[in-house]
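Entry 12.
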Amino acid sequence: MTEEAKVKGPASYFPSIEKKYGQPVSHWLDVLKTLDGKKHMEMVAVLKNDHGMGHGHANALVAYHLASARGG
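Predicted 3D structure (tokens):
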């Protein structure tokens, strides 16, 4: 894989999130859509407490979700 094609940022966690938690990233993004209006760390806490997700994975998903909502 070339350096240009290498995934960076929060999306770089997606393969390991799917492998570890057995759900596609789209599932987790749908969960986060139900939490719109909450703050970043409140969303992270829901993924950690209600779904057993580790902090790094939860944080990456929330960061990606919020950036996408902002158009970034």
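Annotation: The mean pLDDT is 92. The chain has one domain: 10-69.
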